[in-house]
């Protein structure tokens, strides 16, 4: 299994499955082939091999949870029912903590994944409410833009227009690490009053946002390839929640960058 820049997938073992999981080792046999001690019992929902439907349904559940909490939070912020900073900071911290628990626990937990999605929805909803107050209609544009990029990259992957090769994988991982490092440096310098201008509404800031959107989009190729490998290797269906979590992390980054780009483009008019 190739490496990936997504921390959710990087904890999965090489070769698919988890903790050395292999379909035959878990009692999966072809019809008519007896296993050790006779024919194995039919696999249950929890240990049967993952399918594309599993990934689709679990991803839809996580996105739906984030969308509901996000819309409710954005409406509350726009209506003046709540201030944007408490849910923004609270959602960010809770989401970060839950993501670390999910990553290092190395066990697919639907409750944790859905809680993470809800927290990210609150975080994104608060930010969206602030941007929407300045630029009406920007929220819908950002959502549609994110969906368009996601669908486009899925089509690109499924048609094989761009092959996920080891060289491309290394390039995407390096670009992602570079982007994260640049943002960290910019954040640290801002504490001492130094502004690099990479997040301002100018040519440099717009260029950086476009670059980050491109890197996030290409990360989907690695996510899709990793999920595809897990399905083909017979990983248990419960790990579809882990796939959904990994896709959610990339979607959050992409949405934030598209939202920022739209704001810079429209505020500079």
Automatic annotation (TrEMBL):
Alphabetical keyword list: Membrane, Transmembrane, Transmembrane helix
Chain ranges passing through the membrane: 60-82, 88-104, 111-131, 137-159, 171-192, 204-227, 239-256
Record region (Disordered): 31-50
InterPro entries: BaxI_1-like
Tree of life domain: Bacteria
Keyword NAD applies: no
Signal peptide: none
Protein name: Membrane protein
Organism (species): Actinokineospora fastidiosa
């Amino acid at each position: 299994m190739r490496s990936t820049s997504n921390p959710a997938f990087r904890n999965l073992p090489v070769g698919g499955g988890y903790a050395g999981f292999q379909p035959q080792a878990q009692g999966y046999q072809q019809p008519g082939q007896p296993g050790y001690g006779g024919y194995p019992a039919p696999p249950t929902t929890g240990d049967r091999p993952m399918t594309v439907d599993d990934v689709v349904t679990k991803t839809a559940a996580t996105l739906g949870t984030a969308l509901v909490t996000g819309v409710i939070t954005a409406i509350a912020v726009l209506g003046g029912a709540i201030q944007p900073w408490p849910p923004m900071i609270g959602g960010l911290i809770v989401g970060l903590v839950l993501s670390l628990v999910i990553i290092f626990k190395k066990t697919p937990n639907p409750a944790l994944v859905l809680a993470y999605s809800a927290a990210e929805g609150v975080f994104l909803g608060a930010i969206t409410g602030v941007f929407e107050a300045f630029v009406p209609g920007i929220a819908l544009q950002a959502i549609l833009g994110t969906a368009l990029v996601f669908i486009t990259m899925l089509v690109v992957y499924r048609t094989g227009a761009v092959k996920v090769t080891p060289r491309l994988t290394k390039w995407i991982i390096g670009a992602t690490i570079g982007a994260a490092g640049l943002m960290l440096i910019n954040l640290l310098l801002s504490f001492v009053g130094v502004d690099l201008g990479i997040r301002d509404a100018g040519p440099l800031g717009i260029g950086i946002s476009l670059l980050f959107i491109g890197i996030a989009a290409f990360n989907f190729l690695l996510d899709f390839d990793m999920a595809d490998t897990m399905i083909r290797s017979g990983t248990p269906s419960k790990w579809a929640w882990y796939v959904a979590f990994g896709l959610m992390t990339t979607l959050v980054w992409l949405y934030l960058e598209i939202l920022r780009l739209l704001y810079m483009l429209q505020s500079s008019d």
